[in-house]
Amino acid sequence: QKKTNLSFSNRGKTLEDELNETNEFYLSRSMAVIHKKPVPIQVVNVNYPARSAAVITEAYFRTPSTTDYNGLWKGKYIDFEAKETKSATSFPLQNIHEHQVNHMKSVSKQGGITFFILKFTSLDRYFITPYVFFEKYWERMISGGRKSITLDEVMEMSTEIKPGFNPRLDYLQAVSALAASYETIERQEDV
Amino acid sequence: QKKTNLSFSNRGKTLEDELNETNEFYLSRSMAVIHKKPVPIQVVNVNYPARSAAVITEAYFRTPSTTDYNGLWKGKYIDFEAKETKSATSFPLQNIHEHQVNHMKSVSKQGGITFFILKFTSLDRYFITPYVFFEKYWERMISGGRKSITLDEVMEMSTEIKPGFNPRLDYLQAVSALAASYETIERQEDV
Ligand SMILES: [Mg+2]
Ligand SMILES: [Mg+2]
Fold it and tell me: What is the C-alpha separation between B186 and A93, in angstroms, rounded?
């Protein structure tokens, strides 16, 4: 394979676009089966015009009860939430829902691999942050502490990933390392 | 635990209600983390009234690209599609989408546990049908054969589950047997 010499900086794309492209790449190569879940919407009223598709005429956005993305990689369950911030110094916690954090806790207990993909848009930097390390910063906020995680703290507990061409955001590399570290811990606990 | 002596026949409930109750039960006991995915909807127009929630005023239902339910049980990835039929003699294939079948094939290849939960509402009978056995009936249809699976064929390839009180549809029992049979096959292939 020839490498094309492109600048990979692509600030116009949303993190969601980048992840959808990446997931399509993984699916097409049979590397993983990971999809974004649809946005939960409560439908109140629907019209059924003759000879054309049903039209929803009244509906409301609902708060998601789980994370945005889940799926399967080498038989293992993968579950993550993707968030971007414009801040260059810290990651705000206010747009992470308590339901989502509770869901990640359940996934973690049930043996799944769960993490955040955090994007600092103004820095063009991306981090894979395992839920198990994130937890203490969430608890710090709950107990009255700061409502964000500093960039230094994010760097300290995360794996940084560099955007590329195809796949755009090769997060499975970091996930693979994460899964290996879990297995090491499990083996040690078995002893 | 005392067993209450109730009739568990409950034909008014939809299969979706029964599965949601069951999944809540599993989640509350930390037995599994399995959720129904939201229905995919394409939002075309949204109004933002002052001082109240955003109202979606035009939207359309989209064809799902994956199955309805997925999640995690003892570290393993679980993925299924739930369907009911009023027929007492066969299960029609026309309301299973090709996208969903392709998704299940990908899941199966990636080492996930994937199956249908089929309900014959007029018989009050429920079946767990592994995707690996279902595949040949789908291919029979593709190659011009019948557009349904007979009840006898469903019975032959499935595990029947009886509805109960709590959990309403204890499908993890059947999944557990299915997972064990996969592991046996893998061990044999390793030899
Ligand atoms: Mg999100
Ligand atoms: Mg369905």
Answer: 43
Please, what's the b/e burial string for A103-114 (b: 16 or more CB within 10 A of its CB; e: otherwise)?
Answer: bbbbbbebbbbb
CB contact under 8 A, A57 and B53: no
User: Which tens digits make up the pLDDT trace of A45-95?
Assistant: 999 988 888 999 999 999 888 999 999 999 999 999 999 999 999 999 998
User: Which of B23, B110, B131, B175 best tests the A interface by mutation, with the highest count of A CBs <10 A?
Assistant: B110
CATH number at residue A26: 3.40.1350.10
Q: Say if B69 falls within a structural domain.
A: yes
Give pLDDT tens digits for B156-183.
999 999 999 899 999 999 999 888 887 7
What is the phi/psi pair of residue A184, to 5°?
-60, -45
Residues of B with CB under 8 A from a CB of A: 27, 30, 32-33, 35, 37-41, 43, 53-61, 65-66, 70-77, 79, 103, 106-107, 109-112
End-to-end CA distance of chain A: 44
- Residue in the structure block whose two tokens are 């509402």: B121
Angstrom distance (rounded) from CA B78 to CA B131: 12
Q: How far is A6 from chain B, CA to nearest CA, in Å?
A: 32
Residue B46 C-alpha to ligand 2 middle, in angstroms? 27
DSSP code for B96: S
**B6 assigned to some structural domain:** no
Strands A55-61 and A41-47: antiparallel
Considering its fold, how many domains does chain B have in total?
Answer: 1
- Residue A97 CB contacts under 8 Å (≥ 6 apart), including other chains: A63, A64
- Count helices and strands (H / E) in chain B: 5, 10
